[in-house]
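User: structure tokens for this one?
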Amino acid sequence: MIEEHKYRFYGWQSADVEDKYGLTPRDYYDLLSGIWQADTCAPRMRGDWSEENKTLGQCSITAFLMQDIYGGKVYGVPLGDGNFHCFNDAGGCVFDLTSEQFGNVRLDYDGCPEQFREVHFKKEEKRQRYELLKSRLFAVIEERARGGLR
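Assistant:
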């Protein structure tokens, strides 16, 4: 049984797609919640990052990491300032692990343009943050596979 109050990210209710480890986006949200840090946050947002708002500035690197795991496409909600908030569509399973950074603001996920890592990772700092998040995540997965985490 899923605890409704535990998940606040967009699409959590139907985020049932599984990867090769049998993990769903809800499982990855749980794992990433212990991994998202100020050093993986977008530099322009780091001053506002906090333990209470861990998903702030983590969208593109998280979405592309989930694309590595589940496939599918990454889309971006236009934010009006020239930036996009990235989310995933993995074969019709639409989810946004970092949506809670917007608090009670509801984003419009319909008709959003596809986002490409080649564009996002032209910024070397973003590619480096992605690599850092990826290495931390897979270290936790490996630890868990060895029986160190439940």
